[in-house]
Amino acid sequence: MWLIGGLAPDFKTIADFRKNNPKAIRLAFSKFSLLCDSLGLIGKELVAIDGSKFRANNSSDKYCTAKKTIKKIEHYEEQAKKYLALLDANDEQERQNPPPSITKKDLQKKLSGIEKRIGELQVQLGEIGEHGDIALTDPDSKMMQVKNSGREVSHNVQIAVDSKHHMVVAVDVTSEAVDKEQLFEEERYINGSACRQCLVREQCTKTSYHSIVEQPFQRYADVVDARTAQNKELVRQRKCLVEHPFGTLKRALGFTYFLTRRTENVRAESCMHFLIYNLKRAIQILATQQIVEGMGV
């Protein structure tokens, strides 16, 4: 409302704006970060990076695993058996008076619907076996382990926080539950012909060839591990830096779950929320007038 001169748009206006302008929202976050830098709010000496899980717009009931799908198939197969038994009983009752309350046509219609559903679930089970678990509402969301509440269908929000005033300088969203998956892929080397001619292959592998995984950043990871072990205080500071914005967003601003779906839209929604966080923090530190002057307005 402050940005648009005190206007008070309704929820649909805000929802449509967020839906129709994901690139503009991400750009606004980046531009405001540059403004904060020009105003001296970003120290650029220490930046902490971490992630936090936020519940996706996808209920657990709409999240399909192989175990859940098999259980549903078994349930519908049991229902099909019951309807087949009812059809047999219906044939006997048709010979008697009065006629049965449920007609044979009704039973066959219900049985056909169950068989169709079983077929759909079997196709779904095959897709799960090929691609992994399926989220029906937000296909990019995943079941993730979250603190204090077990497991939830979520997205993993990653942020980089500058140490000077706890300003968020970068935002990203991933469907990977583990933060280490955000590292670059390791390259895999395979040479089957060389392995077949190798004189010591049996000492290396029992398969037809051996694959070698190159980790181009492993030497940096080793250095970081050593630095981490030697700088316990720096690790503690990192936790404080990142937990502050996440805590403010979840507790003070009440943002604990996404309203949008798919990774690109969720990423834009995250940028919008952290833009709000940065804006409120900048106003608290510098006051509105100085920020407006910094914009050149």
Distance between the termini: 17 Å
The average pLDDT value, as a whole number, equals 84
Low-pLDDT segments? none
Molecular shape: flat
Q: Main sheet, how many strands, which sense, barrel?
A: 4 strands, antiparallel
Number of helices: 10
What is the chain-wise order of helices and strands?
Answer: HHEEHHEEEEEHHEHHHH
How much helical structure, as a percent, in the residues?
40-55%
E-strand count: 8
Radius of gyration: 28 Å
* Strand-residue proportion: 5-15%
Helical/strand content category: alpha+beta
Question: What can you see in these coordinates?
Answer:
- The protein is built from ten helices and eight strands.
- The protein is α+β, with helices and mostly antiparallel strands and 297 residues long.
- Strands 1, 4, 5 and 6 form a four-stranded antiparallel β-sheet that branches. It has a two-stranded antiparallel ribbon with strand order 2-3. A two-stranded antiparallel sheet has the order 7-8.
- A hairpin with a 5-residue loop joins strand 5 and strand 6.
- The model has no long low-confidence stretch (mean pLDDT 84).
In a nutshell, what does this entry contain?
With 297 residues, this protein is of the alpha+beta class. 53% of the residues lie in helices and 15% in strands.
List its traits.
single chain; 297 residues; alpha+beta; 4-stranded antiparallel beta sheet; two-stranded antiparallel sheet; 10 helices; 53% helix; 15% strand; flat
Could you give the topology of this structure?
Blueprint: H1 11-20, H2 22-38, E1 47-55, E2 63-64, H3 66-93, H4 104-131, E3 134-135, E4 142-145, E5 151-162, E6 168-174, E7 187-190, H5 192-196, H6 201-204, E8 211-214, H7 218-230, H8 232-252, H9 263-286, H10 288-295
